[in-house]
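Journal club side-thread
Mid-discussion, someone asked how the predicted structure for our own chain would compare to the paper's figures. Pasting it here so we can look after the session.
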Amino acid sequence: MLIEGLRRSIAAAGLTIAMTAVSLSAQGAPAAPRRITLDNAIEIALRSNPSVLQAENSARLSSLAVEQQHKQLLPTLNLTTGTGYIYGAPGLPSQDPTVTAGLAARMQVGNVYSTVANIRQAQLDETGSGFTLVRSRQTVVFNIMSRYLSLVQAQEQLAVQRKNLESVETQERQIEALVQQGRRPISDLYQQQASSAGARLSLLQAERGLVIARMGLIQDLQLDPFGDYDFVVPELAALSTTSASLNLERITQQALAQRPDLRASEVSLSSAEQGIRIAAANRWPTLSVQLGYNSGSFSSDQTGAFFNQLDQGRRGSLSFNVSVPILDFTQGVTRERANIALDNARINFASRQLAVSTEVETAYLDLQLAEQQLTVAEAQLQAADRALEMSQTRYDVNVATLVELTQAQTSQLRAASELVNARYELIFRSRLMDYYLGDLEAGPVY
């Protein structure tokens, strides 16, 4: 009953797939699929990933903040004009409307201490935004590589399941012939048919895993989910790193020196120190310079033409103003806020340093483990192949039972699947090491 149920489920799934294929073929010949390599995927992600776009906008805003701080040192130029009407006291006549015009230039010098600190803080924020952008791009590169490798791994797992299905179906045909010859009991055929049904189910599960991995990559690339894409398998040898070529102490120092997120945290600390200087500068005097040139006023009560009256009353002015703060109740709050911001920046920088060291050491140990797992998986597959070959020979000469042969086939399938996982685990750990070291290039690198 179990075998018949599996057969019906698999037959229904096959019928659904066949009907879908017929429906698609009826719509006309599809266009050639879009070919996408690993380099292409990285380029597409860097152009369309929301986190990268937001980081680019933040970097641009920081650059504009620096520009704004520099331009605040430039003078402002204003053109003013106005009219007025003077009402007389009770019993006295009112004056006609007057017209005035003027041109004024003003420059806010401030105190040098605050001005320099503001400019320096804006420059540091710009540098920090640049490091954040680099790390954001590295994160996208790593995520896309992981997705891409998961897709290739799913393709290899599908190939393993297809090969296994071919093997068990061939074995089923052989056993059926032996049963017909009376050399094997009918129970062996039933058992092998159950194994074939299980292999078909495993193949369907592997196909589903491939579809999920494919859709995950398409989603990360912001591509049309209904498009047809051909993802090219990359050269895997270039993606692996051996732990023997790495020194833990050296790579830890390397990560501490070049990780963009750590450098951004360090720059944020320096920016917070500038914030202390800005808060302290509020108690210093502020200097402003103003240069003005104004026309006279025109009134119909006075003699003379319009432009003559304006010309006769023209005058210029030059003023220097010094503002000395005496009492500011918010000054203490401003300084306290700056101190808290500095303390938080120090905590964040120390925490980031510790996290980087821990991540690198963990990645180093995981890389060593992945190398050992690959070695073990290769040895297991070799042993499983030999055991399967021996069991098949023993079964053919009626020495071994079908149970023994089935167990050998299961062990060989498990070993082949684990070898695929071990191979891609090593590649993943190698790329993760580069990510933790801050070595991933934000662009096509392979």
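Post-session note: Residues 32-79+99-285+333-437 form a domain with the Outer membrane efflux proteins (OEP) fold (CATH 1.20.1600.10).
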